[in-house]
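Project standup — Tuesday

K.O.: blocked on the structure for the chain from last sprint. Re-posting the sequence here as requested.
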Amino acid sequence: MLRKALLTTALLLSVSAAHGGFLTFEAAGADPAAITSTRDAFRTAVGGGTTVGANGSFGGMRREINWDGVPNSFADPNFLPANFFNTNSPRGAVFSTPGSGFMVSTNAGESSSALFGFSRDFQTFSAQRLFTAIDSSITDVNFFVPGTNTAATTSAFGLIFVDVEVENLTKLEFFDQNDALIFSKNASVFGNQGLTFLGGVANAGERISRVRITSGQNTIISNGRLGNPNDDVVVMDDFLYAEPVQLQRVPEPPTFALLFLGLLAVFNRRRLRLGRFGWNV
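H.V.: unblocked you, prediction finished:
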C-alpha cells in the first residue's frame, strides 16, 4: 500500500510538470504573399472572425496588433508606452525589455525616415509601421485581461519578423504562470528584407503567461543607428494571439508534498489498526 501511495504521488508530480506540446506555424519569404497562407492558418487555429472589432478583438477569440493605428505622437522618434496596448488600445498586452524602451516606425512623410531609417533592410507586412525594442534585441510580452491590471494567460501567440538573415539568433519562447519554459522555436531564415511568420498554439491545455521575443543579435539605438555595424538586426510587424483570460492558479509543489504526507498518515493508521488484530501488513 505504501508503494501505491508513493506511486500515486509520483504520478501527480509528473503531471504537474508535463506539457503536451504546441502546434507550430512557420513560413518565410520575400514578400507578404509568401507567408500570408501560414498566417491565415494560424488565425484559423486560434479562432475568431476576419473583421477586426474594437481594440483588435475578433469576437473574443483572437487579438491582433499591426502597429498602424499608433498615433504619430507615440511613433519614431518618440517612445511607445509599454502599456499602450492595455491602456490606450486595450488588447491585454504589456511589454518590457532590458533596453531603454520601445519604438514604432514613422509613416512616410514624417520628420523621421520610415522603416527606422533602414529602407534597404526592412519592409512591412501590413503598411506602414514596424515595431522594435530600443537598445536591446529582447521584448517580453505579459498578458492581462484587456484594459485591467488583472493578470491573464493566453493559449497562442504568433508574430511576423522582418529581415531574419542569420540562423538561431531570432526566436520565440513561451513561459507558463510559474515562469517555466514550455515552448521555444527559432525563426526561419530567408534573407535581406525577408518576412518570417512564427507562432505556436497550445494543443494540450497549456497556458502562456509570458512570451519572450529575441530579435536577432544587433540593436537599434535610434533612427538610422545600430548598436554595431556587423550583426543581424531584426524588427517586428504584426502580433497575433488568443484572447487573454484571467490567470488561474494551479497547486504549487508544496501542495503535493502535503498530499504525500496525508497518504502516508492514512497508510500508517491502517497499519496500526491491522496490527491490533495480529494481522501482518
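K.O.: great, moving the ticket to review. The chain has one domain: 22-246. Residues 253-275 form the longest helix (23 residues).
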